[in-house]
Amino acid sequence: MSSKISNPVVWSAAWRISFWGTVAFALGAMVVFILLHRFFADDIQRRNDAWLAGEVEVLGDVAERTPKDALYGRILGEVAELVRKEIPNRLRREGGSNDSVFFLQTDEIGSLKLWVGAGTGNHTLAAIQKSEGLFDLPSDLQVSGVAIPFRVVSIPVEDGSRIYLGISERDELRVLNNLRLRFLFLWLLIVLLGFAMVFGTTRGMLGNVQKITQSAARIGRSDLNTRVPTTQHNDEVAHLALTLNRMLDRIENSMHQLHTITDSLAHDLRSPLTAIRGKLEVLLSAARNSEQIEPIVSVIEEVDRLTDFLNQSLDLSEAKADALRLTRSEIDLDALLRSMIDVYGPTMADNGLQVSFHSAGAVKVEGDAALIHRMIGNLLDNEIRHLHIGCVVTIRLQADDETASLNVEDDGPGIAPELMPHLFESRVKGTQSKGHGLGLAFVDAVARAHSGTVAASNREDRGARITVTLPIAHNLRSKGIPDIEADSQRAHSLSC
Terminal CA-to-CA distance of the chain, rounded, Å? Predict the structure, then answer.
Protein backbone atom coordinates (compact mmCIF):
# COMPACT_ATOMS: atom_id res chain seq x y z
CA MET A 1 0.00 0.00 0.00
CA SER A 2 1.63 3.17 -1.15
CA SER A 3 1.04 6.42 0.63
CA LYS A 4 2.47 8.51 -2.14
CA ILE A 5 0.44 11.65 -2.80
CA SER A 6 0.00 12.40 -6.48
CA ASN A 7 0.24 16.01 -7.57
CA PRO A 8 -2.79 17.51 -9.33
CA VAL A 9 -2.22 18.08 -13.03
CA VAL A 10 -5.35 19.26 -14.81
CA TRP A 11 -8.66 18.38 -13.16
CA SER A 12 -7.75 19.45 -9.64
CA ALA A 13 -10.21 20.78 -7.08
CA ALA A 14 -9.20 24.36 -7.96
CA TRP A 15 -9.99 23.68 -11.62
CA ARG A 16 -13.33 22.08 -10.76
CA ILE A 17 -14.42 24.89 -8.46
CA SER A 18 -13.30 27.57 -10.93
CA PHE A 19 -14.83 25.77 -13.90
CA TRP A 20 -18.26 25.12 -12.42
CA GLY A 21 -18.34 28.55 -10.74
CA THR A 22 -17.51 30.19 -14.06
CA VAL A 23 -20.11 28.07 -15.87
CA ALA A 24 -22.78 29.13 -13.36
CA PHE A 25 -21.78 32.80 -13.70
CA ALA A 26 -21.64 32.61 -17.51
CA LEU A 27 -25.08 31.00 -17.72
CA GLY A 28 -26.52 33.58 -15.34
CA ALA A 29 -24.99 36.46 -17.32
CA MET A 30 -26.31 34.92 -20.56
CA VAL A 31 -29.85 34.70 -19.15
CA VAL A 32 -29.65 38.35 -18.05
CA PHE A 33 -28.49 39.38 -21.53
CA ILE A 34 -31.27 37.42 -23.24
CA LEU A 35 -33.83 39.22 -21.09
CA LEU A 36 -32.22 42.61 -21.79
CA HIS A 37 -32.00 41.83 -25.51
CA ARG A 38 -35.67 40.93 -25.56
CA PHE A 39 -36.51 44.14 -23.71
CA PHE A 40 -34.53 46.34 -26.13
CA ALA A 41 -35.96 44.54 -29.20
CA ASP A 42 -39.52 44.98 -27.94
CA ASP A 43 -38.88 48.62 -27.06
CA ILE A 44 -37.42 49.41 -30.51
CA GLN A 45 -40.33 47.68 -32.22
CA ARG A 46 -42.83 49.50 -30.02
CA ARG A 47 -41.26 52.85 -30.92
CA ASN A 48 -41.26 52.00 -34.63
CA ASP A 49 -44.89 50.86 -34.48
CA ALA A 50 -45.86 54.07 -32.69
CA TRP A 51 -44.08 56.14 -35.37
CA LEU A 52 -45.73 54.18 -38.17
CA ALA A 53 -49.19 54.52 -36.65
CA GLY A 54 -48.79 58.26 -36.20
CA GLU A 55 -47.32 58.99 -39.61
CA VAL A 56 -49.81 56.86 -41.54
CA GLU A 57 -52.65 58.81 -39.92
CA VAL A 58 -51.01 62.06 -40.99
CA LEU A 59 -50.68 60.78 -44.56
CA GLY A 60 -54.26 59.56 -44.54
CA ASP A 61 -55.47 62.95 -43.31
CA VAL A 62 -53.44 64.74 -46.04
CA ALA A 63 -54.84 62.37 -48.69
CA GLU A 64 -58.43 63.11 -47.63
CA ARG A 65 -57.93 66.90 -47.49
CA THR A 66 -56.02 67.20 -50.79
CA PRO A 67 -58.23 67.85 -53.85
CA LYS A 68 -58.31 65.02 -56.34
CA ASP A 69 -56.79 66.98 -59.21
CA ALA A 70 -53.57 66.86 -61.17
CA LEU A 71 -51.57 68.04 -58.17
CA TYR A 72 -52.87 65.33 -55.86
CA GLY A 73 -50.09 62.87 -56.54
CA ARG A 74 -47.38 65.51 -56.40
CA ILE A 75 -48.56 66.96 -53.09
CA LEU A 76 -49.00 63.57 -51.46
CA GLY A 77 -45.65 62.37 -52.79
CA GLU A 78 -43.84 65.40 -51.36
CA VAL A 79 -45.46 64.86 -47.98
CA ALA A 80 -44.46 61.19 -48.07
CA GLU A 81 -40.90 62.18 -48.98
CA LEU A 82 -40.80 64.53 -45.98
CA VAL A 83 -41.94 61.66 -43.78
CA ARG A 84 -39.12 59.49 -45.08
CA LYS A 85 -36.57 62.18 -44.28
CA GLU A 86 -37.81 62.56 -40.70
CA ILE A 87 -36.26 59.25 -39.63
CA PRO A 88 -32.67 59.85 -38.34
CA ASN A 89 -29.71 57.43 -38.28
CA ARG A 90 -30.87 55.43 -41.30
CA LEU A 91 -28.30 53.81 -43.56
CA ARG A 92 -28.61 54.53 -47.26
CA ARG A 93 -27.63 52.54 -50.31
CA GLU A 94 -24.39 53.27 -52.10
CA GLY A 95 -26.27 55.42 -54.60
CA GLY A 96 -27.59 57.65 -51.84
CA SER A 97 -31.26 56.65 -52.21
CA ASN A 98 -33.31 56.09 -49.10
CA ASP A 99 -34.64 52.53 -49.09
CA SER A 100 -35.53 52.43 -45.41
CA VAL A 101 -39.07 53.80 -45.80
CA PHE A 102 -41.68 53.45 -48.51
CA PHE A 103 -45.10 55.02 -49.16
CA LEU A 104 -47.63 53.15 -51.30
CA GLN A 105 -51.22 54.01 -52.23
CA THR A 106 -53.59 51.65 -54.05
CA ASP A 107 -56.85 52.49 -55.81
CA GLU A 108 -60.27 50.93 -55.27
CA ILE A 109 -59.36 47.72 -57.11
CA GLY A 110 -55.96 47.33 -55.43
CA SER A 111 -53.78 48.60 -58.27
CA LEU A 112 -50.74 50.78 -57.67
CA LYS A 113 -51.79 54.42 -57.58
CA LEU A 114 -48.87 56.22 -55.94
CA TRP A 115 -45.40 55.03 -54.89
CA VAL A 116 -42.66 56.86 -52.98
CA GLY A 117 -39.57 54.81 -52.28
CA ALA A 118 -36.70 52.90 -53.88
CA GLY A 119 -37.54 51.05 -57.07
CA THR A 120 -40.90 50.82 -58.78
CA GLY A 121 -42.96 49.43 -55.95
CA ASN A 122 -44.30 46.48 -57.95
CA HIS A 123 -42.52 43.92 -55.74
CA THR A 124 -43.85 45.60 -52.63
CA LEU A 125 -47.41 45.66 -54.00
CA ALA A 126 -47.13 41.98 -54.96
CA ALA A 127 -45.95 41.12 -51.44
CA ILE A 128 -48.88 43.08 -49.93
CA GLN A 129 -51.40 41.34 -52.20
CA LYS A 130 -49.85 37.95 -51.49
CA SER A 131 -50.07 38.47 -47.72
CA GLU A 132 -53.88 38.97 -47.99
CA GLY A 133 -53.76 41.31 -45.01
CA LEU A 134 -54.96 44.88 -44.58
CA PHE A 135 -52.19 45.75 -42.07
CA ASP A 136 -54.48 47.76 -39.83
CA LEU A 137 -51.91 46.99 -37.13
CA PRO A 138 -48.14 47.10 -37.74
CA SER A 139 -47.02 43.75 -39.17
CA ASP A 140 -43.96 42.26 -40.85
CA LEU A 141 -43.80 42.15 -44.66
CA GLN A 142 -41.20 40.22 -46.62
CA VAL A 143 -40.60 41.75 -50.07
CA SER A 144 -39.14 39.60 -52.81
CA GLY A 145 -35.50 40.45 -53.48
CA VAL A 146 -35.05 42.23 -50.15
CA ALA A 147 -33.35 40.28 -47.36
CA ILE A 148 -34.61 42.41 -44.49
CA PRO A 149 -38.39 42.53 -43.82
CA PHE A 150 -40.42 45.77 -43.54
CA ARG A 151 -42.69 46.79 -40.73
CA VAL A 152 -45.89 47.91 -42.48
CA VAL A 153 -49.14 49.61 -41.41
CA SER A 154 -52.06 50.78 -43.58
CA ILE A 155 -55.10 53.08 -43.37
CA PRO A 156 -58.14 53.38 -45.70
CA VAL A 157 -59.04 56.62 -47.49
CA GLU A 158 -62.63 57.87 -48.15
CA ASP A 159 -62.31 57.49 -51.91
CA GLY A 160 -61.79 53.71 -51.52
CA SER A 161 -58.05 53.79 -51.88
CA ARG A 162 -55.65 52.56 -49.22
CA ILE A 163 -52.33 53.98 -47.99
CA TYR A 164 -49.43 51.75 -46.85
CA LEU A 165 -46.43 53.04 -44.93
CA GLY A 166 -43.46 50.71 -44.33
CA ILE A 167 -40.15 51.02 -42.54
CA SER A 168 -37.25 48.62 -42.96
CA GLU A 169 -36.12 46.66 -39.90
CA ARG A 170 -32.52 46.72 -41.13
CA ASP A 171 -31.36 49.44 -38.76
CA GLU A 172 -33.06 47.85 -35.75
CA LEU A 173 -31.42 44.52 -36.56
CA ARG A 174 -28.08 46.30 -36.99
CA VAL A 175 -28.43 47.89 -33.55
CA LEU A 176 -29.35 44.58 -31.97
CA ASN A 177 -26.51 42.80 -33.77
CA ASN A 178 -24.00 45.39 -32.52
CA LEU A 179 -25.45 44.98 -29.05
CA ARG A 180 -24.98 41.22 -29.26
CA LEU A 181 -21.38 41.53 -30.49
CA ARG A 182 -20.44 43.99 -27.75
CA PHE A 183 -22.09 41.88 -25.12
CA LEU A 184 -20.34 38.73 -26.37
CA PHE A 185 -16.98 40.50 -26.15
CA LEU A 186 -17.69 41.85 -22.66
CA TRP A 187 -19.17 38.50 -21.62
CA LEU A 188 -16.05 36.59 -22.68
CA LEU A 189 -13.80 39.18 -21.04
CA ILE A 190 -15.70 39.09 -17.74
CA VAL A 191 -15.93 35.28 -17.77
CA LEU A 192 -12.17 34.91 -18.35
CA LEU A 193 -11.33 37.50 -15.70
CA GLY A 194 -13.77 35.87 -13.29
CA PHE A 195 -12.30 32.44 -13.95
CA ALA A 196 -8.77 33.75 -13.42
CA MET A 197 -9.73 35.45 -10.16
CA VAL A 198 -11.64 32.43 -8.83
CA PHE A 199 -8.91 30.02 -9.92
CA GLY A 200 -6.14 32.14 -8.40
CA THR A 201 -7.99 32.49 -5.10
CA THR A 202 -9.03 28.84 -4.98
CA ARG A 203 -5.60 27.58 -6.00
CA GLY A 204 -3.95 29.64 -3.29
CA MET A 205 -6.36 28.32 -0.68
CA LEU A 206 -6.21 24.69 -1.84
CA GLY A 207 -2.44 24.96 -2.26
CA ASN A 208 -2.23 25.33 1.51
CA VAL A 209 -4.52 22.31 1.85
CA GLN A 210 -2.23 20.35 -0.50
CA LYS A 211 0.80 21.26 1.61
CA ILE A 212 -1.07 20.10 4.69
CA THR A 213 -2.00 16.84 2.93
CA GLN A 214 1.57 16.13 1.81
CA SER A 215 2.95 16.90 5.26
CA ALA A 216 0.31 14.73 6.91
CA ALA A 217 1.15 11.87 4.51
CA ARG A 218 4.82 12.03 5.52
CA ILE A 219 3.98 12.01 9.21
CA GLY A 220 4.02 8.49 10.57
CA ARG A 221 6.27 7.15 7.82
CA SER A 222 9.26 8.88 9.36
CA ASP A 223 8.33 10.24 12.78
CA LEU A 224 5.51 11.87 14.67
CA ASN A 225 7.45 15.02 15.50
CA THR A 226 6.65 16.73 12.18
CA ARG A 227 3.69 19.10 12.06
CA VAL A 228 1.65 20.39 9.15
CA PRO A 229 2.43 23.96 8.02
CA THR A 230 0.20 26.72 9.31
CA THR A 231 -0.74 30.04 7.72
CA GLN A 232 -0.98 33.53 9.14
CA HIS A 233 -4.56 33.93 7.95
CA ASN A 234 -7.35 33.42 10.42
CA ASP A 235 -9.48 31.33 8.05
CA GLU A 236 -10.80 27.78 7.73
CA VAL A 237 -7.53 26.43 6.31
CA ALA A 238 -5.54 27.86 9.22
CA HIS A 239 -8.04 26.34 11.67
CA LEU A 240 -7.69 22.99 9.86
CA ALA A 241 -3.89 23.09 10.21
CA LEU A 242 -4.11 23.98 13.90
CA THR A 243 -6.66 21.22 14.52
CA LEU A 244 -4.46 18.65 12.75
CA ASN A 245 -1.42 19.73 14.75
CA ARG A 246 -3.37 19.38 18.01
CA MET A 247 -4.55 15.94 16.89
CA LEU A 248 -0.96 14.99 16.03
CA ASP A 249 0.11 16.13 19.49
CA ARG A 250 -2.45 13.79 21.03
CA ILE A 251 -1.41 10.95 18.70
CA GLU A 252 2.26 11.45 19.54
CA ASN A 253 1.45 11.39 23.26
CA SER A 254 -0.62 8.24 22.72
CA MET A 255 2.24 6.60 20.83
CA HIS A 256 4.67 7.49 23.58
CA GLN A 257 2.29 5.99 26.13
CA LEU A 258 1.87 2.89 23.95
CA HIS A 259 5.64 2.48 23.65
CA THR A 260 6.01 2.97 27.38
CA ILE A 261 3.32 0.38 28.11
CA THR A 262 4.68 -2.16 25.64
CA ASP A 263 8.25 -1.67 26.84
CA SER A 264 7.16 -2.06 30.46
CA LEU A 265 5.01 -5.06 29.60
CA ALA A 266 7.79 -6.68 27.62
CA HIS A 267 10.26 -6.08 30.43
CA ASP A 268 7.86 -7.34 33.10
CA LEU A 269 7.11 -10.51 31.13
CA ARG A 270 10.54 -11.21 29.68
CA SER A 271 12.32 -10.90 33.01
CA PRO A 272 10.50 -13.79 34.72
CA LEU A 273 10.64 -15.86 31.51
CA THR A 274 14.38 -15.28 31.27
CA ALA A 275 14.78 -16.16 34.95
CA ILE A 276 12.72 -19.35 34.47
CA ARG A 277 14.78 -20.34 31.46
CA GLY A 278 18.02 -19.72 33.36
CA LYS A 279 16.91 -21.92 36.21
CA LEU A 280 15.82 -24.62 33.77
CA GLU A 281 19.24 -24.51 32.09
CA VAL A 282 20.85 -24.93 35.53
CA LEU A 283 18.64 -27.95 36.18
CA LEU A 284 19.45 -29.29 32.72
CA SER A 285 23.15 -29.05 33.33
CA ALA A 286 22.70 -30.89 36.65
CA ALA A 287 20.50 -33.64 35.20
CA ARG A 288 22.06 -37.12 35.15
CA ASN A 289 19.76 -39.26 33.02
CA SER A 290 17.38 -38.95 30.08
CA GLU A 291 14.30 -39.15 32.27
CA GLN A 292 15.31 -35.88 33.88
CA ILE A 293 16.63 -34.20 30.71
CA GLU A 294 13.62 -34.67 28.39
CA PRO A 295 11.04 -32.85 30.59
CA ILE A 296 13.44 -29.97 31.17
CA VAL A 297 14.20 -29.62 27.45
CA SER A 298 10.46 -29.69 26.69
CA VAL A 299 9.79 -26.94 29.22
CA ILE A 300 12.66 -24.83 27.83
CA GLU A 301 11.16 -25.16 24.35
CA GLU A 302 7.76 -24.05 25.65
CA VAL A 303 9.36 -21.08 27.37
CA ASP A 304 11.08 -20.15 24.09
CA ARG A 305 7.77 -20.46 22.23
CA LEU A 306 6.09 -18.30 24.85
CA THR A 307 8.84 -15.68 24.55
CA ASP A 308 8.55 -15.70 20.76
CA PHE A 309 4.76 -15.38 21.00
CA LEU A 310 5.18 -12.44 23.37
CA ASN A 311 7.59 -10.65 21.07
CA GLN A 312 5.43 -11.17 18.00
CA SER A 313 2.25 -10.12 19.80
CA LEU A 314 3.80 -6.88 21.01
CA ASP A 315 5.33 -6.09 17.63
CA LEU A 316 2.06 -6.89 15.87
CA SER A 317 0.10 -4.63 18.23
CA GLU A 318 2.50 -1.77 17.52
CA ALA A 319 2.31 -2.44 13.79
CA LYS A 320 -1.49 -2.39 13.76
CA ALA A 321 -1.39 0.92 15.62
CA ASP A 322 1.15 2.25 13.05
CA ALA A 323 3.55 2.68 15.94
CA LEU A 324 6.45 0.54 14.78
CA ARG A 325 9.72 2.30 15.49
CA LEU A 326 11.64 2.21 12.22
CA THR A 327 15.36 2.79 11.90
CA ARG A 328 15.67 3.33 8.17
CA SER A 329 18.78 2.47 6.22
CA GLU A 330 19.82 1.16 2.83
CA ILE A 331 19.05 -2.55 2.45
CA ASP A 332 20.22 -4.79 -0.37
CA LEU A 333 17.49 -7.43 -0.59
CA ASP A 334 19.65 -9.67 -2.76
CA ALA A 335 22.46 -9.82 -0.16
CA LEU A 336 19.97 -10.14 2.71
CA LEU A 337 18.14 -13.05 1.08
CA ARG A 338 21.37 -14.88 0.29
CA SER A 339 22.59 -14.59 3.88
CA MET A 340 19.22 -15.76 5.26
CA ILE A 341 19.11 -18.71 2.87
CA ASP A 342 22.57 -19.68 4.09
CA VAL A 343 21.23 -19.60 7.67
CA TYR A 344 17.91 -21.35 7.00
CA GLY A 345 19.28 -23.73 4.38
CA PRO A 346 20.55 -26.41 6.77
CA THR A 347 17.25 -26.41 8.71
CA MET A 348 15.29 -26.74 5.49
CA ALA A 349 17.58 -29.52 4.36
CA ASP A 350 17.03 -31.34 7.67
CA ASN A 351 13.27 -31.12 7.00
CA GLY A 352 13.66 -32.55 3.49
CA LEU A 353 13.06 -29.28 1.64
CA GLN A 354 14.85 -27.94 -1.41
CA VAL A 355 15.43 -24.20 -1.91
CA SER A 356 15.88 -22.42 -5.24
CA PHE A 357 16.77 -18.74 -5.31
CA HIS A 358 16.54 -16.52 -8.43
CA SER A 359 17.62 -12.90 -8.29
CA ALA A 360 17.91 -10.02 -10.74
CA GLY A 361 20.94 -8.67 -8.89
CA ALA A 362 21.33 -5.93 -6.32
CA VAL A 363 17.94 -4.45 -5.38
CA LYS A 364 18.09 -1.57 -2.92
CA VAL A 365 15.20 -0.55 -0.66
CA GLU A 366 15.04 1.79 2.29
CA GLY A 367 13.68 0.44 5.54
CA ASP A 368 14.30 -1.07 8.92
CA ALA A 369 16.79 -3.90 8.40
CA ALA A 370 15.78 -5.77 11.58
CA LEU A 371 12.07 -5.75 10.74
CA ILE A 372 12.59 -6.79 7.11
CA HIS A 373 14.94 -9.54 8.33
CA ARG A 374 12.23 -10.80 10.68
CA MET A 375 9.60 -10.51 7.95
CA ILE A 376 11.61 -12.74 5.59
CA GLY A 377 12.36 -15.08 8.49
CA ASN A 378 8.63 -15.49 9.14
CA LEU A 379 8.09 -16.40 5.50
CA LEU A 380 10.81 -19.04 5.61
CA ASP A 381 9.61 -20.36 9.01
CA ASN A 382 6.14 -20.65 7.52
CA GLU A 383 7.49 -22.87 4.73
CA ILE A 384 9.39 -25.06 7.19
CA ARG A 385 6.33 -25.60 9.38
CA HIS A 386 3.76 -26.38 6.68
CA LEU A 387 5.61 -28.25 3.88
CA HIS A 388 6.15 -31.98 3.59
CA ILE A 389 9.38 -33.76 2.83
CA GLY A 390 10.46 -33.42 -0.80
CA CYS A 391 8.80 -30.06 -1.47
CA VAL A 392 10.64 -27.29 -3.32
CA VAL A 393 10.65 -23.66 -2.15
CA THR A 394 11.38 -21.14 -4.91
CA ILE A 395 12.35 -17.59 -3.98
CA ARG A 396 12.39 -14.93 -6.70
CA LEU A 397 13.60 -11.35 -6.35
CA GLN A 398 12.54 -8.96 -9.12
CA ALA A 399 12.48 -5.20 -9.53
CA ASP A 400 11.25 -2.45 -11.81
CA ASP A 401 11.55 1.32 -11.69
CA GLU A 402 9.16 1.66 -8.77
CA THR A 403 8.99 -1.51 -6.69
CA ALA A 404 10.92 -4.56 -5.62
CA SER A 405 8.98 -7.82 -5.67
CA LEU A 406 9.80 -10.84 -3.46
CA ASN A 407 7.98 -14.06 -4.39
CA VAL A 408 8.09 -17.10 -2.11
CA GLU A 409 6.30 -20.06 -3.65
CA ASP A 410 6.25 -23.81 -3.12
CA ASP A 411 4.74 -26.98 -4.52
CA GLY A 412 3.05 -28.00 -1.29
CA PRO A 413 -0.64 -28.49 -0.54
CA GLY A 414 -1.44 -24.81 -0.94
CA ILE A 415 -3.63 -22.51 1.15
CA ALA A 416 -7.07 -23.68 2.23
CA PRO A 417 -9.80 -21.65 0.46
CA GLU A 418 -11.54 -20.80 3.74
CA LEU A 419 -8.32 -19.25 5.08
CA MET A 420 -7.51 -17.14 2.01
CA PRO A 421 -9.70 -14.08 2.84
CA HIS A 422 -8.33 -13.90 6.40
CA LEU A 423 -4.78 -15.15 5.85
CA PHE A 424 -3.06 -11.97 7.04
CA GLU A 425 -5.21 -11.48 10.13
CA SER A 426 -3.82 -12.28 13.56
CA ARG A 427 -4.62 -15.66 15.17
CA VAL A 428 -5.67 -17.14 11.80
CA LYS A 429 -4.07 -20.52 11.11
CA GLY A 430 -4.82 -23.93 9.66
CA THR A 431 -6.13 -26.84 11.65
CA GLN A 432 -2.79 -28.65 11.40
CA SER A 433 -0.68 -25.63 12.28
CA LYS A 434 1.21 -25.61 15.58
CA GLY A 435 2.02 -21.88 15.43
CA HIS A 436 0.22 -18.91 16.93
CA GLY A 437 -1.18 -17.49 13.69
CA LEU A 438 0.90 -14.31 13.95
CA GLY A 439 3.64 -14.84 11.36
CA LEU A 440 1.81 -13.71 8.21
CA ALA A 441 -0.01 -10.96 10.11
CA PHE A 442 3.41 -9.62 11.12
CA VAL A 443 4.59 -9.86 7.47
CA ASP A 444 1.61 -7.76 6.38
CA ALA A 445 2.22 -5.21 9.16
CA VAL A 446 5.91 -4.78 8.24
CA ALA A 447 5.09 -4.44 4.53
CA ARG A 448 2.48 -1.75 5.26
CA ALA A 449 4.88 0.08 7.58
CA HIS A 450 7.30 0.29 4.62
CA SER A 451 4.57 1.51 2.20
CA GLY A 452 4.46 -1.92 0.57
CA THR A 453 1.94 -4.69 0.07
CA VAL A 454 1.68 -8.43 0.55
CA ALA A 455 -0.58 -10.83 -1.33
CA ALA A 456 -1.18 -14.58 -1.26
CA SER A 457 -2.56 -16.96 -3.86
CA ASN A 458 -2.53 -20.61 -4.85
CA ARG A 459 -0.54 -21.63 -7.91
CA GLU A 460 -2.41 -23.09 -10.86
CA ASP A 461 -0.64 -26.43 -10.71
CA ARG A 462 0.10 -26.92 -7.03
CA GLY A 463 1.34 -24.99 -4.05
CA ALA A 464 1.08 -21.48 -2.65
CA ARG A 465 2.63 -18.15 -3.55
CA ILE A 466 3.21 -15.14 -1.30
CA THR A 467 4.33 -11.89 -2.92
CA VAL A 468 5.77 -8.95 -1.00
CA THR A 469 6.31 -5.64 -2.81
CA LEU A 470 8.36 -2.77 -1.41
CA PRO A 471 9.12 0.62 -2.97
CA ILE A 472 12.55 1.08 -4.49
CA ALA A 473 14.85 3.60 -2.82
CA HIS A 474 15.40 5.77 -5.92
CA ASN A 475 18.10 7.91 -4.40
CA LEU A 476 20.02 4.86 -3.18
CA ARG A 477 19.35 2.33 -5.90
CA SER A 478 22.46 0.99 -7.60
CA LYS A 479 22.85 1.66 -11.31
CA GLY A 480 22.72 -0.88 -14.07
CA ILE A 481 20.35 -3.48 -12.63
CA PRO A 482 19.90 -6.11 -15.37
CA ASP A 483 16.54 -7.06 -16.78
CA ILE A 484 14.82 -9.61 -14.60
CA GLU A 485 14.11 -11.77 -17.65
CA ALA A 486 17.64 -11.58 -19.06
CA ASP A 487 19.70 -14.68 -19.61
CA SER A 488 22.20 -13.37 -17.09
CA GLN A 489 19.79 -14.15 -14.27
CA ARG A 490 21.67 -15.97 -11.56
CA ALA A 491 20.37 -18.95 -9.59
CA HIS A 492 21.41 -20.08 -6.17
CA SER A 493 20.22 -23.54 -5.14
CA LEU A 494 20.43 -25.59 -1.99
CA SER A 495 19.31 -29.21 -1.94
CA CYS A 496 18.67 -31.46 0.99
Answer: 37
